[in-house]
Fold this sequence. Notes:
Chain A is an alpha+beta fold. Chain A has 7 helices and 8 strands; from the N terminus they run βαββαββαββααβαα. Chain A is 25% helix and 14% strand. The N and C termini of chain A lie far apart (57 Å). In chain B, strands 1-2-3 form a 3-stranded antiparallel beta sheet, with no helix packed on it. In chain B, strand 1 (29-30) and strand 2 form a beta hairpin. Chain B contains 3 helices and 3 strands. Classes of the chains: A alpha+beta, B mainly alpha. Chain A binds chain B through residues 2, 59-60, 65, 70-78, 81, 83, 86, 123, 125-126, 128-130, 141, 143-148, 152-153, 158, 161-164, 167-168, 171, 174-175, 178, 194, and chain B through 22-23, 25, 27, 29, 34-48, 54-56, 58-60, 62-64, 66-69, 77.
Amino acid sequence: xxxxxxxxxxxxxxxxxxxxxxxxxxxxxxxxxxxxxxxxxxxxxxxxxxxxxxxxxxxxxxxxxxxxxxxxxxxxxxxxxxxxxxxxxxxxxxxxxxxxxxxxxxxxxxxxxxxxxxxxxxxxxxxxxxxxxxxxxxxxxxxxxxxxxxxxxxxxxxxxxxxxxxxxxxxxxxxxxxxxxxxxxxxxxxxxxxxxxxxxxxxxxxx
Amino acid sequence: xxxxxxxxxxxxxxxxxxxxxxxxxxxxxxxxxxxxxxxxxxxxxxxxxxxxxxxxxxxxxxxxxxxxxxxxxxxxx
Lengths: 207, 77
């Protein structure tokens, strides 16, 4: 049985936010809720690193452990989902999650907090597959269509991989082996395994 | 008194050890429910009509399609 996971390659991510946009578009996520975000370290400096973060569908999910109303469940594909009809919007899962995945829609002048919303690995929710209720509450159910999450499938640089953990781990391992290693451990050469050719030295040029 | 302490310790030890227990991470799907929450298996959708093999084949193809080293022909340098 597949165990669905995301794998983000910081060497390849170019902070295009295509995954964030694809997620919002595919699931029609409301304003103020970001099921996926791109986090950049050392922004603007040489060697900056970006990584796409959402629910990582933990094998032993802390959100499931702390939920006082037990609204979470894990599918046989390893996807962590929740039932919005049971959720009370307490926010414990937000404090427990190391990735900040649980999101809470806020509305009104006093920031009324709604029911928790998070990445579903494009697997919908407890409502019948492809129903209007499922789409409204949880977004599109691509997994039941035989597809993988929109964020990973649209990633132009394939920095974000999503799917069966064994398969994507093999893809990543293969990629790392092709990259090799060297003094320039970041940049195009590292990401794509083709070291840039240095231009021939010009006569009289300062070195 | 010593006997009482031993009995007390024997009673408390299993409770302390219970804190080190690990919750089972294996998911069980019983009567259309995961841990009491109803949901369908992805291959039970209208598209696959319960054909698990066809669903797994479709997902596997999508999985492998993410490897551009296999998908694209190597560029001639």
